[in-house]
Amino acid sequence: MAKILICDDSAFMRMMLKKVLVDHGHEVIGEASDGRQAVQMYRQYRPDLTTMDITMPKMDGIEAVRLIHEEDPLARIIMVTAVGQRSIITDALKAGASDFIVKPFVPSQVVEAINKVLASRFFTESLDNNSKKG
C-alpha cells in the first residue's frame, strides 16, 4: 500500500505505530527520532505519508512540517500529539499537516486517519493528472 515515514523521539511509540501500519499492509520506509532527522529522511525517501510527533529534540514537529511543506507542498503529514497539546494542532495544520492523531491512540484511529489522508492525496493526484491530459 503506502510507503510511510515515522517520526517520533519515543522508540516505543515508533514501534507501536509501525506495528499498526505493517499489520494494515503499509511499508515503513524509515524512522526518525528528531525533527532534523525527519526532514533529512523525508528528502531522502519522499514517502507517501509521514507521521510526525510534535515534541521532539533538535527541531520540533511543527518546524519540521513547515520545512517539508516548503519543499513539497503536496506532502501528506499526520501529526501525533499528546492529549494536552490540542491547542497547538492549529499551528501544525497551518504549517502544512494534513491531519492529527491524539496519543494514546487506538489502532483504528491511526488506520482511519491514514486512509483519509491517502484517499485525499490520490484524489488530488488524479485530478491533477486528468487536467494535464485535457
Question: What is the CA-atom radius of gyration, in angstroms?
Answer: 14 Å
Query: Count of helices?
Result: 5
How far apart are the first and last residues' alpha carbons, in Å? 28 Å
- What spatial form do the alpha-carbon principal axes imply? globular
Helix content: 40-55%
Give the biggest beta sheet.
5 strands, parallel
- Average pLDDT number: 88
**What fraction of the residues are assigned to beta strands by DSSP?**
15-25%
Question: How many E strands?
Answer: 5
The strand order across the widest sheet is 2-1-3-4-5
Backbone structural class: alpha/beta
| Elements, N to C (H/E) | EHEHEHEHEH
The poorly predicted ranges are: 123-134
Account of the 3D structure:
The chain has 134 residues and is of the alpha/beta class. Strands 2-1-3-4-5 form a five-stranded parallel β-sheet, sandwiched between helices. It has helices at residues 11-23, 35-45, 61-71, 89-95, 107-133; strands at residues 3-7, 27-32, 49-53, 77-82, 99-103. Strand 4 (77-82), helix 4 and strand 5 form a beta-alpha-beta unit. Mean pLDDT is 88; it is low at 123-134. Helix 2 (35-45) runs parallel beside helix 3 (61-71).
Write the layout of secondary structure elements.
Elements (H helix, E strand, L loop, with lengths): L2 E5 L3 H13 L3 E6 L2 H11 L3 E5 L7 H11 L5 E6 L6 H7 L3 E5 L3 H27 L1
Parallel strand pairs: 1-2, 1-3, 3-4, 4-5
Helix pairs in contact: 2-3
Q: Summed up, what is this model?
A:
With 134 residues, the protein is an alpha/beta fold.
